[in-house]
Design brief:
By secondary structure, the chain is mainly alpha-helical. The protein has one domain. Helix content is 89%, strand content 0%. It has 4 helices and no strands. The longest helix has 73 residues.
């Protein structure tokens, strides 16, 4: 496990350019699966710690945080793959967030269009029903007029 995480990080960085015509979309699919592996490794570590006493858990978390901070500082100072990994991770997150917000905007616009269309259709139907109502009333009154005229002629 000691060498597995750094290898995954290097693979995450290397997948930036695959040479494929679909590399832009392929990298997101591959990186999604890498993220699942990272999360699995993290939860595996959490489960190991969960079986320990509370005091020991607290001490391990402190030690782990110190080690992580030291490793991060060393990696940041060396400018190696970890810095590139963090940079790509932030870029991917920004891109996916932008795409998600764009999709939410399109969903909202579509909902408004449907809403306006339904309101427009409802108004149109009401106007047709109203016109039909007037036509029926006109026919009724015309029939009444004819009936009154027939009665008056007798």
């Amino acid at each position: 496990m000691v060498h597995f995480a750094p290898c995954l990080i290097q693979f995450y960085v290397a997948i930036e350019s695959t040479g494929s015509s679909n590399e832009f979309y392929d990298k997101f699919s591959i990186r999604y699966h890498l993220t699942i592996i990272f999360l699995s490794m993290w939860s595996h570590l959490s489960h190991k710690v969960a079986g320990l006493s509370h005091q020991l858990q607290h001490e391990l978390v402190i030690i782990f945080d110190i080690c992580v901070q030291a490793s991060m500082i060393e990696a940041l100072n060396s400018g190696g793959p970890f810095v590139r990994f963090v940079n790509l991770l932030i870029n991917d997150t920004t891109f996916l967030l932008d795409e998600s917000l764009g999709c939410i905007k399109r969903i909202h616009e579509t909902q408004q269009l449907i809403k306006n269309t339904i309101v427009g259709r409802t108004f149109f139907l009401i106007s047709i029903v109203t016109e039909l109502h007037f036509v029926i009333l006109a026919m009724f009154f015309a029939g009444m007029e004819q009936a009154i005229e027939r009665t008056a002629r007798r």
